User: What shape does this take?
Amino acid sequence: MLDELGERQCRLMADFFSAMSNSTRLHMLCALQTGPKTVSELAEYAEVSMPNASQHLRVMREKGVVTMEKEAQFVYYTVADPRIIKGASMIRTALTDVARRNAQWMDVDAE
Assistant: This one.
């Protein structure tokens, strides 16, 4: 539940939502829910170039959404906290419900 938030907590949340307000980053987050991925795997999944994927991952890493770990010549990215995936899923469900309600209202208005 959201209790009364202080200014610092609001800024932290705003920074997080700002980082995740990009569809490419959301695609990458979806890919990461099944486990660690390399930059090339994430670039392919999100249908972007590797340099572009790296830029998006840098933003996500700076905001604490993902972590990275080197194994030999590969760098693997992982979701920093599984609650991020759960939270994103809850937001998607809520927005889907809102969209359905709005569509129903639009149908009623058209009559």
In short: Helices lie at 7-19, 23-32, 39-46, 50-62, 82-110.
